[in-house]
Specification:
Elements (H helix, E strand, L loop, with lengths): L1 H5 L23 E9 L4 H10 L2 H5 L3 E4 L8 E7 L4 E14 L2 E8 L5 E11 L5 E11 L2 H5 L1 H23 L1
Antiparallel strand pairs: 1-7, 2-3, 3-4, 4-5, 5-6, 6-7
């Protein structure tokens, strides 16, 4: 099983925690950011639940398996269907945000992943009551096809992020 292989695997990039610190842009990794504004302050709680239960990932079309709850060190195995077959990815949660007005996590890639880097999923409620869902990726292509066809890899990453945003919008509606 893909998830079992995660336990002895190591993260495939450095530095850890870079997706949550926009001031850092490590050489060789590219930063990309996607965001959506959610309808009202009530959406914050529903958004947190959607992140906590992996509903954002599942509703974006991914199969998700974890070896524990959202916590630093939890391993994650993802599978995304493609027109022919599927792409598999393994990650490990490297940071968790659990504050009164922010909730989310960042996971880093393990050896089975088409990218090398980190991705963060954060729901936040500003002082004025505006609720946002942000996806932040700091990565570079790792799979041979992704390295050979960077525009295609970028397109697939963008498509996945937009599916996360849409899934969040549906979760809080």
């Amino acid at each position: 099983m893909l998830l079992e292989g995660c336990r002895s695997d190591t993260l495939s990039y450095e530095p850890i925690g870079v997706s949550l610190d926009r001031a850092k842009s490590p050489m060789g990794l590219h930063r990309r950011h996607w965001t959506t504004v959610l309808p009202d302050p009530v959406a914050f709680g529903r958004g947190c639940d959607a992140v906590r239960t992996w509903a954002v990932h599942r509703d974006a079309g991914l199969a998700v398996a974890t070896d524990g709850p959202i916590a630093v060190g939890t391993n994650v195995a993802l599978s995304a269907p493609l027109p022919l077959g599927c792409v598999e990815a393994t990650c490990r949660i490297v940071a968790v945000i659990d504050e009164p007005n922010r909730y989310g996590f960042a996971y880093g890639t393990l050896s089975v992943h088409p990218e090398r880097g980190e991705e963060a999923f954060v729901v936040s409620c500003d002082d004025d009551g505006a609720v946002h869902f942000d996806v932040e990726a700091v990565s570079r292509p790792a799979h041979v096809l992704a390295r050979l066809l960077p525009p295609a890899a970028k397109h697939l990453q963008d498509r996945a992020a937009r599916r996360y945003l849409s899934a969040m919008e549906r979760a809080v509606a």
